Amino acid sequence: MTDLIHERPSRLVSVRELFDIDSDFKVPVFTHKDEHVPEADPSYCFNPDVTMAILAGFTRNRRVMIQGLHGTGKSTHIEQVAARLNWPCVRVNLDGHISRLDLVGKDTIVLKDGKQITEFQEGIVPWALRRPVALIFDEFDAGRPDVMFVIQRILEQDGKFTLLDQNQVINPHSYFRLFATANTVGLGNVTGLYHGTQNVNQAQMDRWNIVASLNYLPRADEIRIVQGKVPRYADEAGYKLIDAMVAVAELTREGFAAGDLSTLMSPRTLISWAENTEIFNDPALAFRLSFLNKCDEAERPLVAEYYQRCFDQELQESQSVKLTLL
To answer: pLDDT per position in the chain (326 positions), as tens?
Structure first.
């Protein structure tokens, strides 16, 4: 594993060149691709406004939070920007099992020269602070209160981090960056979709310099993304199929917004539907296995109606399975 401590961006590149965004804004790019740099997805579709918000975080050291519904690619968006900048990136999911010790560090017993000794093993926060790393906190609004107060220390732009157990004060690396993703904006489970989310301390929310919203893309862009993930449907016939799938997804989102449905089809589920259609060679069966069976039984007739409207055929109760052999 390479040590990043002495790495620095080597050049500035226009966002017009990297992201095809009409702007003279220039961003720092690393020459060497470290093992922590995410793999670039050539088919990824960037949202221009969110991309500029993320680039402001990388370029001007702004603390950036991306908020939006599930499956919209919030974390992936940050990673794909980092991939094109060759910027090392580490994701931490703030689930209920992440503790203060995981972030800060803890004493561990190690064997040296045949003897057991106690040695401090630093957590992900001090490790990242010392390096030119983009640290992403996923599901930021699901973090435990004790964990959130650890993060609050580093939300200041030049915030120093104190390791009390080691009597150390860590000065952040000049190219350390901090991002977060959240389904809510710290207001808790308002819609009923996101059980486990917390009300985030508003003093902490105030420390995020930029909050960008990433929601569902226009139909043409969503079709292009699905075709990119499932190349079998990249032809004209495939376009018509994916167009009908996206139309169903849009109806579920409208139904959810109107209060008719308690769930909706995310882009992630849409891609799964297309992938399962390739497996079973049957969009109706794949639809039921990918989405319909996740819905409340009382709502399934309405969802089946959405399918019928977009595909001009009834959704049968049973479908024969036709596996596509690879």
So the answer is: 456 777 888 899 999 999 989 988 999 999 888 899 999 988 788 889 999 999 999 999 999 999 887 677 889 999 999 999 999 999 998 876 788 888 888 767 777 777 777 777 788 888 999 999 999 998 887 777 777 777 777 887 666 787 766 677 888 899 999 999 988 654 444 444 444 445 565 666 778 899 999 888 889 989 998 998 899 999 999 999 999 999 999 999 999 888 898 888 988 899 999 999 999 999 999 999 999 999 999 999 999 999 999 999 998 765 444 444 44
Residue 294 and residue 184 share a domain:
no
Report the candidate in 150, 148, 97, 104 with the shortest Cα–Cα distance to residue 128: 104
Residues 251 and 207 in one domain: no
Same domain, 146 and 253: no
Q: Which residue has the tokens 């190690």?
A: 110
Q: What's the chain's Rg over C-alpha atoms?
A: 23
According to DSSP, the β-strands at 115-122 and 134-138 are: unpaired
Same domain, 41 and 185: yes
Indicate whether 73 and 171 sit together in one domain. Answer: yes
What distance in Å separates the CA atoms of residue 58 and residue 83, rounded to the nearest whole number? 12
Residues 17 and 104 in one domain: yes
Between CA 309 and CA 298 the distance in angstroms is 19
Distance, CA of 137 to chain centre: 10
Among candidate residues 213, 232, 250, the one where a domain is terminated? 213
| Domain containing residue 54: CATH number | 3.40.50.300
**Is 6 domain-assigned?**
no
Query: What domain range is 290 assigned to?
Result: 219-311
Q: At what angle do helices 48-60 and 74-85 cross, to 10 degrees?
A: 60
- What is the rounded CA–CA span in Å between residue 73 and residue 46? 10
Instruction: Indicate whether 27 and 145 sit together in one domain.
Output: yes
Same domain? For 83 and 190 the reply is yes
Q: Do 138 and 93 touch, CB atoms closer than 8 A?
A: yes
Q: What is the pTM of this model?
A: 0.77
